[in-house]
Amino acid sequence: MKTPVVAIVGRPNVGKSSLLNALVGRRISIVQDMPGVTRDQISTHLKIPMGKDLPNRFVELVDTGGYGIDDPDRLTDHIHHQIEQAMARADLCLFVVDVQAGLTAADEQIAALLRRRGLKTVLLANKADGAKADIALGDFARLGLGTPVGISALHDRRLDQVVHAIRSNLDLSDAPTEIPEPQMLVAIVGKRNAGKSTLVNAIAEIYEGHGDRVIVSEVPGTTRDSVDVRFEKDGKTLVVIDTAGVRKKRHMVTNDIEFYSFHRAQRSIRRADVVFMLIDGTIPISEPDKKLSAYIAEQHKPVILVINKWDLVLENARKQAEEKKMDFSPELLTSEFKEYLDQELPHLDYAPLAFITAKDGRKVQPLLDLAQHLFKQATLRVSTSQLNQAIEQIFSERTPSTPRGQRVKVLYATQTDVAPPTIVLFVNNPAWVNENYKRFMVNRFRELLPYPEVPIRLLLRGRNEKREQAIAEAGAVPPKRKTAKKAKTARRPAKSPPHPKRK
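Request: output the structure for the sequence above.
Response:
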């Protein structure tokens, strides 16, 4: 079953990204009032209603960069290549023009390109707000692509006509009626120029047969948006997310593209099942690396520290050894690098390491195998008996230091969740268990339970917290404790005065 592809094309700043966001009903692409924000192909799925008693169909909707842009980073050719790729696989093009700006030479060039390629096209005149805009639509009929549909992506005007045009111009009888959720999402994060986009393209080349899904350039900050790339591996649907490179926060301002890119990268980490933290092995660990590792640990995400450009590291180390007339050992270098990372990124000392060269695709398949292994670890549940045995072992080795010789007692233990594995201990006094002992417990849990390479969330609760929580969820008020009342001394009634005797 093939998913039809609908590509949104047009010159810069006509509202292509706004249209994609408006059609799907959520913010997918970064929107900013400046040309050239979108560079890569940003794709998502759009539901097309088919009418009464008919199942909905889905198409792949692709946002593209602005055709004809004069990119300040000299990436114009790369952007054009991505647009042409989207056109090549498109079953329908939505050609967006700007009513407010009027017909331009760039619009005519794009129209000529679409006609020359013989692409089925729907002409959309965006920013058609007000009566005057409707009059201006006639100018765009000269493009030879039919009558333009006046829309406003910003104000959701006539978007139903866009959906109708897609439905009318495509045979959707074989289009999917649902889009299966991917079995695993992998976010690729790291600082700028670490090789994230190169790794994404290497994965696409292996599993899709073409490795040009995102722009790769030596220019720092080439990737601005988070780009989802779906592929099949071993009969399972997986998604890798390319993210913008992280740099020091003080270099960003709240209206900066990089500000939004940074927060998109954080959101990708939260979405992900597994994170690839890409590290350039040729340069030292820096502040952005440390902040990124701390955020990954804070989100309790399984992570692989992916050391990229390892071929260059080996080559440089070999040359230095030859100059000093010393023996060279790749194994020793690997071991020393691991020790270095443990010191610099202590939040992730449990994370496995992978040494790769993304540009030639070496060790990419084992990297994804490892990601699936971590995902399986993070979704395991252990029995209560297995958990209790681990706790008994831990407390027999070392007990927490408590004030005045008090003893911490574990009243009840349970695993409440997976991804991450979440262990809740009900103890007599949670305040007696300090952070050092909690870290000790988590490290021993990794050794005693089947979670050696994934984060574990440990929560401590008090004696009555479980009972009180259950009462609160039921909307009841906890009963008041009965207090002993002081016994009151009963007073004897005063004797009535004797009645006077009647005479």
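The domain at 5-169 is CATH 3.40.50.300 (Rossmann fold).
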